[in-house]
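Please predict the structure of the following assembly.
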Amino acid sequence: MYSNQSRRCLSGLARLAAKTPSPLSPCEAATLSPALGRVLSHSHGRLATTATTTGTRAFSSYSGRFDQARETDVAESLFYSQRQSEPEPTTSTTTRPAQAPPAVEPGPLDGIRVLDLTRVLAGPYCTQLLGDLGAEVIKVENPEGGDDTRAWGPPFATNIDEESDDHESAYFLSVNRNKKSITVNIRSDAGRQLIYDLVRKVDVFVENYVPGKLESMGLGFKQLSAINPRLVYASITGYGQTGPYANRPGYDVMIEAEAGLMYITGEEHGPPVKVGVAVTDLTTGLYAHAAVLAALYARNRTGLGQHVDCSLLESQVATLANIGSSFLIAGKEAKRMGTGHPSIVPYQVLETRDSHIMIGAGNDNQFRSLCKVLQLDTLSENPLYRMNRDRVTNREALIQILTNRLKSENNAFWLQAMEGKGVPFAPINNIGQTFSHPQVLARDMVQEIEHPTVGKIKVTGTPVKYSHTKPSIRTPPPLLGQHTDHVLQDILQYDDTKIQSLKESRAI
Amino acid sequence: MSRIDKSGPTIQSLLAKTHQEKVADRDSNQNSDKNDSSTNGSEARLKGRPNSSPSDIKGGGDSAKVPAAPGPLDGIRVLDLTRVLAGPYCTQLLGDLGAEVIKIENPKGGDDTRAWGPPFAKNINASDPTSSTLQESAYFLGINRNKKSVTVNIRTKEGKKLVQDLAEKCDVLVENYVPGKLDEMGLGYKELSLLNPGLIYTSITGYGQTGPYRNRPGYDVMIEAEAGLMYITGEKGGTPVKVGVAVTDLTTGLYAHGAIMAALLARMKTGRGQHIDCSLLDSQVVTLANIASSYLIAGQEAKRWGTSHPSIVPYQVLPSKDSHIMIGAGNDGQFKILCTVLGLDHLPGDLAYRTNKDRVRNREALIAILSERLQTKTNSDWLAALEDQGIPFAPINNIAQTFEHPQVLARDMVQEIEHPTAGKIKVTGIPVRYSETKATIRVPPPLLGQHTDEVLKDMLGYDAQKIKALREQRAI
């Protein structure tokens, strides 16, 4: 839920974005200052000193100073500008109104600007991670519909205007917060020129086109790094930029099939199944965002950007981890185990009267505790089951005994009985239960933000907590082209005539 | 010895530097402390060291050549107090990127996963190559390359002091103890950040440092169960299954290594480290991604789908004569092509299956028809027939087939390194290519305590007597 303060602040930001020439009251200007500070520091790390040490943060003078500072900045500093990290009031959008806004410093990527040409999941997840960390992300979308996932529903969020046909899909809303949307037809000459202009103003470029595609449009790594040698250019593809499969499009589920994950997931005697979420897309997004950070870190030493080449295939192969190692080192093939463990028994999902429970007795002590809870005390004395080795040998019989007992009571009964007994256990929570888990809530993993057309929406929080430079959710997923004018006016300093002609030529 | 000379550069500017840059500064400083001399020597060696030993690494392609520039994290030193999977995976990622990783292990056996076999790698040196006490497990070998191993009993007073000394020399510390445990031992964030304000102290736990579940130990599979992943994975109508690999551990390791680099970037501006608090639970919740959003935004609960897609048909694993094949017809055009390949040309004209909407409605009947047809030929027949037709398809590769995949090989995802006791071993390559500062595999997974003497002597400047005393006290 928003505090009034942060709501005012956001509406102020919206005006700022729209560049409405409405003077703010002193109170609003004060509230706005942290956000403004961030806007001012959007200099890919160069003019921050000028911006934050002047002390005056009046809205009216913001634009001019911004321009001037950027124009006069020519030195390529190897490090970020040293910036006083004074604590600033927050504009964060946490769900907990009772919590007084803590003094928060900007996120770790504050001052970094990202140009985002990705669509669907892996790429947008990567750039959202960067946005959560404080980067300014400018999402480039085609003017005719934008990111495919805007249409990927149901489910859609309900528009607060009941008359409106505009719906935002839950899918799009999950991976596009903390971004600005601009529409550009990158296939037009004017559109390409616009991208070149933006490339001069950004630190990072992320794209997920099939290899060679952007190059053929003049937007490849070589072309763009000639314009901006400090640019970190990250490519995310199905199979990487090289090799015999380089030109194939990548689909999460095909990679799960092709690179071992599906083969090892499923019931022991059943068919392979996919993971319930597009996990290969997500691990690739995670690899890519970290690679961007590593390249930014290296840039401080070398002064140069580089091409970072990520793929679903390789991320999936790397995340075979110990399963991959068992094969590579000892030639051991893997198999599906349901929820069971090859060398620990019992360590799996077991049936109860009304549902399932995950129970893991990792050692003989835990097995004894488990037997006590189940009132099967004699079992742990039985030579057939006393030691883990015995239990692995007599797996089937033991699982049968445990299941018979567990099926005599409901899940709730067993969950209660297991609590605090020193045996690892867990309910199999569905998504609703997951989001009402007391620890999930205590960790602020559900946050509510205000969206311009659908009103209050819930999104997942940021999973890593920083003691100082905290990640934050600052803006909702953008409407298609919501920030085109703002970006063209304020970042590129295009005048109205130029913007008008770009619109007429359908370049934006 | 890392105390900052007040007359020298500002604290801010010094803290913003890596341990290596600080040492370089001291090198040029005439007033450098005598005690630093041995350290300086080692740092110089470190700086001048070749970034990889190319002769040890064979994977073909450019990653086997001498890299043009050191990795992006060259000059960063990581103190690694983690065990098992999530933590070691995180620190291996940092090592691959060029960081120097010092893994602290208990002298009695070290990281639990050293014993997690079979499978083990054969010991090429032992007279009895099957003696398990001399073997390294495939598990450990898979996630501990590019690290040095130092044995320390952190429960002894001397061991604790040793870890504090090391923390002063490092940029990053990563640990995965239950919250509060290291605080009790004087190795918590507060204590160590006093000794080294630039330290990025990263905690990886099951449930995070706060909240009602914070003191519970974390297990990948429990988190998969507890946070929705198991519920959505499995056959439609079947029981929930876990993902075939401990994916919650891995995503947490990925989040943690990203967070460390973000904090390193922030340190350049603020001059200060910080405490980073990662957990399996939080990482799992966010990687529910669009599934989470359907619930949070529209109240739609998820369910298990096997391999099929809720709103595209056919888009799932189908049986062939001898195996399975994954086929996806994402639109009506692709469905037509599929039917041509299968010799079922009449299907797209059938009103029951013409559009995707029709196919979703008549899912069961259609899947039965396709399955029947597919079971008339073997997988390899179908794979050949589907090649280059413009529809997404894939074989369900096992692990061996995955590592024989021509693209996996072309991308250097299998590399061979030389291990002191196991000889040549294969490990997975590095999934992200950097055009300039390349990530590399420089050293094999260490033997337990392999680098204890080296680190104590060269990095901490301990003399032989002190090291001997520590050994006698069983602190190392």
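Chain B is about 35% helix and 10% strand. Chain B has two domains: 50-286+432-472, 315-319+324-395.
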